[in-house]
Amino acid sequence: MNDLDLDKVEFFVKIVLYKGCHVDAVVYYRRYMNIDFFLRWRWYFEYITARVKVAHPKEKVEMLGGRIDSLNPGEYIEKKRESLLRAKRGQLKKIENTPAMLDLFDIAINKKQDKIARIEDEIQRLESGEVIFYVPGDHLNRVHDFVKPL
To answer: How much is the pTM?
Structure first.
């Protein structure tokens, strides 16, 4: 992709509220914006950030925004599914090749068989197209949870 072709580049805005060093909440998140929309509405995103700062003066509030070069949700799901399938198959092979400790009541063997059954079920679900993992959202607006209406 040519870096000068800004019509094909997407932008995002994310307003985050921190408690100490950790993210407490994502107040606002939006992506799939073109450069024109992002620049035209930047003042609004900064305004929301300022309102959240006034409402929560002791916490750190940060607005992140800019260019994002990422996959669309369909591409993300396929890439994640392929990655998870490869990892689950490797995990299954490792468990199958590791001998279980012998004990009086076969507890270790039963645990090993349960793990193998669980991983085989996850592999089957992934191969059938079921989404069993987190997919990030496209749009989140929780501003009214953090800022009182005027």
So the answer is: 0.52
Burial 23-40 (b: 16+ CB within 10 A, else e): eebebbbbbebeeeebee
DSSP3 helix / strand / coil % (the chain, rounded to 5) = 50, 25, 30
| pLDDT tens profile 53-105 | 999 999 999 999 988 765 667 777 888 888 899 999 999 999 999 887 777 78
DSSP 26: E
Residue ranges covered by each domain of the chain: 6-70, 73-127
* Both structure tokens of 79: 């890439």
The closest alpha carbon to 133, from 80, 60, 66, belongs to 80
